[in-house]
Amino acid sequence: MADLYINSKYLGPVENDQQFVAEFKDLRRKSSLPEDVNIYHDHETKDIYILTDEGRARRPLIIVKDGKPLLTDKHLEQLKNGEITWVDLVRQGVIEYLDAAEEENALVAYTPEELTGQHTHLEITMGSMCGITTSLVPFSNRAPSSRVIIGSKNQKQALGFYAANYYLRMDMDANLLHYPQLPIVKTKIHDVTGYEEHPSGQNMVVAVMCYDGYNMEDGVILNKASVERGLARSTYFRPVSAEELRYSGGLVDEVSIPDKDVKGYRSEHDYRFLEEDGIIYPESKVNEGDVIIGRTSPPRFLSSLDEYNLSAAIRRESSIALKHGEKGVADFVVITENEEGNKLIQVRLREERVPEIGDKFTSRHGQKGVTGILIPPQDIPFSTRGIVPDLIFTPHGVSSRMTISHLMELIGGKVGALSGRFVDGTLFEAEDETSLREELLQLGFRDDGTEIFFDGRTGKQMLANIFVGNMYYLRLRHMVANKMQSRARGPIQLLTRQPTEGKAKEGGLRLGEMEKDTFIAHGASLLLKERFDSDKVVIPVCNESGLMGYYDLRKNGKAISPLHGEDAKVSNIEMSYAFKLLLDEFRSLGIYSKLNLINKY
Description:
Elements: E1 2-6, E2 9-14, H1 17-29, E3 38-42, E4 47-51, E5 58-65, E6 68-69, H2 73-81, H3 86-91, E7 95-99, E8 108-109, E9 121-122, H4 132-135, H5 145-156, E10 174-177, E11 185-186, H6 188-192, E12 202-208, E13 220-223, H7 224-228, E14 234-243, E15 254-255, E16 285-286, E17 291-293, E18 295-297, E19 316-317, E20 320-321, E21 328-337, E22 343-353, E23 360-362, E24 368-375, E25 382-383, E26 391-393, H8 396-399, H9 404-419, E27 423-424, H10 433-442, E28 450-451, E29 453-454, E30 466-475, H11 480-483, H12 513-521, H13 526-531, E31 536-542, E32 550-552, E33 558-560, E34 570-576, H14 577-588
Parallel strand pairs: 1-4, 8-9, 11-27, 12-26, 13-24
Antiparallel strand pairs: 1-2, 3-4, 5-6, 5-7, 5-9, 10-14, 12-30, 13-26, 14-22, 15-18, 16-21, 17-20, 18-19, 21-22, 23-24, 23-30, 25-29, 28-30, 31-34, 32-33
């Protein structure tokens, strides 16, 4: 006897549990039951769970009977000729989908050679345990799972050729790599997904070595000559849009060059790029503060009496200008309508991004790093054959991360580049390391991938042989140009009088408790005096009552105590405005916060 549950709801008892489960699976394989239903038999509690609910991750497996897979060579031939499809295989009961629960009752074999009489299913391919992006990592069975996951996620952030019609699109935050390439070391998934149509990286010559410590802590060193020839160069696209809104009373916005009598008129210099229609002309180079789309709006809060008032009819300026730190070239202008039928103007800005110090690069193995320096071509190390690396990678990044796949790709890329072929690095099915080494030896190179290098600055031979090869490197969208933030003076918040927050608002960088400790540890505690007085304020405080006073402008700005009047002794105290705000909060609650003043001298 066993208890039967459907989606965790009790249905009733079952007499012969094993026979019931076997018949259930048989009916599903014959398509008498829906193919997305799964059954799980708990042998310990003798419970049977039938699952039909949504949100279950299910994966396809080949059904095995008596130690033989039901998928035959005839099926494969029919698939190739297009006589049957995947759906037919599922309906014929050759392939079935298992969820996490039913997989507990299954014994799955990796390869047909492993099959025994006890096996119930066979993997379609050994690498099917991974998703699409993870399957794009070559030799991924030779790296820890954590690094493979990081490599998989990094590929999603890489710049590449994301769409062929990019010049017609108005995407929010688009990056386009100028010379994308297909990797030399690729997997079968690259062919399946049509990766050659949307590649997102470049094959670079990578040397594993140190160079004056500029690549410590995962940093990478770039060859300046390679960058000047277009290595990892990209374009950044961003749209700016404005619409002519309609207001009550028939009032509308107007896209045009604002007149000088408009409220909030900027200056003629700000409007210099606008054409007669109030829209910027293409290919104009703009910087922060420049107006992209000129626009005027009706005045706010227009009452019925003001409609007859001539002075109230002055329109206000509401142009779209570039914010702090923004720049670019007007690339493409679109004039259209939105869903409500209002006129919509969109201007796409483009900006060429040349790799610089602080830009992020990564291989496909989770070995991400930031550019530490761009070396001039005369100083870069070179091999006896005259090979110069495009990128120098730190040797300390491999030992602790155990990413052997990273080193394997260097060897594989070298073999592929020299023999003019693609190297297969598919998970569990990759080309063997020994055969790659042998092929490298036949090509006239050392089988361990190392070469004799010379220092470009001194011309002397380096003490150790340098491991060098070809590798598919990705440039990530985390660029220093988007993140760089600095400020000396700027806007402050109305309430706290502290600097505003965020890059877009010209904000300051907050210095917290921990940052304070680092300054003290460096012996630079006087710097805190400068950093912690962003909201410094001098306030009169009554020596007797300890309450904050005020300046009476009727009595020549004399400081007055709120309790003891003008005769009390009042001292000017320097404090943070945030603290003054706190004292005000206390007073509003009726709490008497007394400041006990002691003379410093």
